[in-house]
Amino acid sequence: MSSPAFSPRKPATGDPHQLLQTARQLLNEQRSIEAARAFAAVLAVQPDCVEALAQLGQLLFQSNEFPASLGCLQQALRISPGMPRLNALMAAVLRKLGRLEESAVCCERESRISPNDPDAHYNLALARQTLRQIPEAIVSYRGALRLRPHYLDALLGLGRCLRQTRQAQAALDYFTDAVRLAPSDARAHWELGTTQLALGQYIPGWSGFEWRWKLPDFTTPPPRYEQPQWDGRGLNGKRIFLYCEQGYGDVIQFSRYATLVAARGGQVMLGCPKPLQPLMETVPGVAEVVTVRQDLPPFDTHAPLMSLPFIFGTTLETIPATIPYIHARVSTSSQKKWVEDLPGKKVGVAWAGSKTHSNDANRSLPSELLKPLLKIPGIRWHSLQAGEAAQVLAHPDFAGKVVDLGSRFKDFHDTAEAISELDLVIAVDTAVAHLAGAMGKTAWLILPFEAEWRWMTDCDDSPWYPTIRLFRQSSPGNWEELLGRVARELADL
Fold first, then answer.
1. Under 8 Å CB-to-CB from 205, ≥6 apart: which residues?
2. What is the pTM of this model?
3. Short-list 358, 368, 404, 361, CA closest to 385
4. What is the mean pLDDT of the chain?
5. Can the peptide bond before residue 273 be classed as cis, meaning omega within 30 degrees of 0?
6. DSSP reduced 3-state for 288
7. What pLDDT does residue 333 have?
8. Fewer Cβ within 10 Å of end Cβ, the chain: N or C?
9. Taking the C-alpha atoms of 36, 41, 44 and 45 in order, what is their torsion angle to the nearest 10 degrees?
10. CA-to-CA distance for 317 and 98, rounded, in angstroms?
11. Whole-angstrom Cα distance, residue 174 to residue 162?
12. 276 and 460 in contact (C-beta within 8 Å)?
């Protein structure tokens, strides 16, 4: 029931009421470990004390002792199933243990026990959203806001749910309310900014995008350079360091701004991961590429790549879309070819992104759904997939039907060489799609129902990549219908 660390040090005796008073006092004084032992002592003489079970369960939860906490709370619920807040606490424990469906059931019970508690409705909404029960989550978020109209987390949660159902314009209203309610909250500005970007409202959107540096879970630390950050003024020959901050695809998409920076008189030193170095050296305006952040050559000013649209005041009409701006350097002395020159359309495919990406479960495609595409006559399939996901190509369903190129790639320059020899690239939202677009290759991008802000909403083309065509899910998670459309288009080729 309780963790050994919080068990009473010697068998407890005495008046359980007095022991309970002692435990309460220790809890009020925030002496958590001693309070936990005191509540355990109460239970040693009165095992059915619901208050002691609940408080010990709470303290164990705060100490990350989740199985022990769950045992306490389960016993408390058996004794007093209608006790307020008890189901909410157990839901939090179950969520930590990865038992999400059970957690949602506890949240539902809590909302019935405490129908006037906005937190109960909020917790149920969050549980439903985690389980992708979005319409039900919207109902619960609205319930929380009816009881507490200025509930910041509920405003943000409802806005996210509306955006997930492609109601971006409606989501905008809630994010605007959130910023008005909490003008210093980075989450509110970020959600508002990315929603504005998705709707094509670029000027206010880029401003909100700058709040990413203050997000509690933003993975890139803010820069700590002695030199000032560039504000867009003429550079007059100064050396400027442009550096990446997020994924490979982001570097490829926003490296185009190096050309604009050079046009303002800058000597551009571009920082990027090593696998991208050969490609970044082909971007017009880039004078030097570095792949480390320590012991950098001297520079006068700096800017993050993804802040350049804000610095340049980019609108939909002024996106720098001179394509191609990345090239594969194919040596004239080399006879190496990635793709055999055989009859049929040469199509490359990439179906999965990095598993470390926060949205990978939503954007990556189950490989078995590709099987019907492989039966289309006149198509010669080539895998551009690297990493663990490519192992599926050894399966009999794929062996002999897809040429495995990705397992031979050493860096993104190899990927670019292979793409240059293909007629068409089909990819999910990964760096391969960005690379094909930056090279001016015809590409079909297959997107989840809620795509990232950069692909906007309800359109089948991209102002960033004129040669990319967008295919979107017609309903959340419905890859089958989307791939059916892709198959029909391929058959028409």
1. 193, 194, 195, 196, 197, 199, 453
2. 0.90
3. 404
4. 92
5. no
6. strand
7. 46
8. C
9. -140
10. 46
11. 9
12. no
- For 270-329, the pLDDT digits (tens) are 999 999 999 999 999 999 999 987 889 999 999 999 999 999 999 999 999 899 999 987
Query: In 14-132, at which residue ranges do the beta strands (DSSP E only) sit?
Result: none
324, 346, 446, 333: which is closest to 405 by C-alpha?
Answer: 346
Round to whole Å and give the CA distance between 364 and 378: 26
Q: Please list the alpha-helical segments (H only) found in 313-429.
A: 360-363, 412-420
**230 touches 302 (CB < 8 A):** yes
Distances (CA, A) of 206 to 98, 317, 363, 394, 402: 36, 15, 24, 44, 41
Provide the H-helix boundaries in 281-333. Answer: 308-312
DSSP tag of 71: H
- Residue 173 host element (H or E): helix 168-181
Residue 217: predicted pLDDT:
85
Give me the pLDDT at residue 363, please.
Answer: 86
- Find tokens 């897809």 and name the residue: 402
What share of residues in the chain are helix, strand, coil (percent, to 5)?
A: 50, 10, 40
User: pLDDT band at 382, cuts 50/70/90?
Assistant: very high
pLDDT tens-place string over residues 91-111? 999 999 999 999 999 999 999
Q: 183: which 2 tokens?
A: 């003008």
Instruction: Report how far Cα 253 is from the mean position of its chain's Cα atoms.
Output: 17
Angle between helices 118-130 and 152-164 (to 10 degrees): 30
Q: What are the residue ranges of helices labelled H in 297-359?
A: 308-312
Chain centroid, CA 275 distance in Å:
22
Residue with tokens 């199509």: 347
Are 178 and 197 in contact by the 8 Å Cβ rule? The answer is: no
Q: Quick one: 93 exposed, middle or buried, by C-beta within 10 A (0-12, 13-18, 19+)?
A: buried
